Amino acid sequence: xxxxxxxxxxxxxxxxxxxxxxxxxxxxxxxxxxxxxxxxxxxxxxxxxxxxxxxxxxxxxxxxxxxxxxxxxxxxxxxxxxxxxxxxxxxxxxxxxxxxxxxxxxxxxxxxxxxxxxxxxxxxxxxxxxxxxxxxxxxxxxxxxxxxxxxxxxxxxxxxxxxxxxxxxxxxxxxxxxxxxxxxxxxxxxxxxxxxxxxxxxxxxxxxxxxxxxxxxxxxxxxxxxxxxxxxxxxxxxxxxxxxxxxxxxxxxxxxxxxxxxxxxxxxxxxxxxxxxxxxxxxxxxxxxxxxxxxxxxxxxxx
Length: 303
Ligand SMILES: Nc1ncnc2c1ncn2[C@@H]1O[C@H](COP(=O)(O)OP(=O)(O)OP(=O)(O)O)[C@@H](O)[C@H]1O
What we know:
Layout (H helix, E strand, L loop, with lengths): L2 E12 L7 E12 L3 E5 L6 H8 L7 E6 L2 E2 L6 H4 L3 E4 L3 H4 L6 H12 L6 H7 L16 H14 L4 E5 L7 H17 L3 E5 L3 H7 L2 E6 L2 E7 H6 L4 H6 L3 E2 L6 E2 L28 H5 L16
Parallel strand pairs: 3-8, 3-9, 6-7, 7-8
Antiparallel strand pairs: 1-2, 1-4, 4-5, 9-10, 11-12
This protein binds adenosine-5'-triphosphate.
The site of adenosine-5'-triphosphate has 14 residues, from strand 2 and helix 1.
Family: Belongs to the ABC transporter superfamily.
Organism: Nonomuraea ferruginea
GO molecular function: ATP binding
């Protein structure tokens, strides 16, 4: 599979006057290949949205690089390409659709972007599992799950090569969540596009992602094939997320609850950022950040 999106050592900072700088993405590296689904997971506030927004140019990169189909796009991100190559589906389908415009007209915008004169908005609605006649109606007539399908139809109309879902299911009813996630996966993969799917719902990510990237306090701490990471999570944080921390003596499993809260990204711990909460912490972890992959942990230092 060829590389579609490549993020290297990306740093993104939020600056608010009178407040310390928040380094929300602190040297993250990640790749999405054409035709694959990458699930990005991690606790609230770890920087997932900031990373996604940097990719589409809504947040500016302070350093590091982002390239799309081999072309560097940093520091402005993909904004100039967003209209054709990349589409993002946001968390809140109530906010992302224009309440005053008919659904069909909003989908038609995407078709125009792609220069697609053969498909109709009704065709796109059909592809996302909605009746063709919805095209003449307005967003307020629909449920959250239906609106998110409409937002997906609008994104797909532009024929993106990369689709990004930033928590696209977390505002939906439980019954709609896995359906919408699976739909995004099927539609992206069948058109040969890549999908970067951000979610804190691990069971859904497990269902749809080929690979999984685990983010902690601005960094990707583990990346791997979804089935392998589930079978054998290696970073203690991934183990905690999946509820399977082996005890240091190898006997049994610690409870999934991690001590303490996520540290403040404006003042991250020295050394490994996870060390204050890590049940397997060693001396080196307190002084030196593990800057290697695919498992950024001193227990898994490449030889
Ligand atoms: N516009 C902003 N100004 C200042 N700080 C921000 C801004 N946006 C995000 N942050 C901070 O950056 C950090 C990362 O936030 P981000 O929203 O990227 O995380 P996330 O993993 O997507 O979390 P969530 O799942 O809650 O959206 C958090 O500490 C957050 O408070």
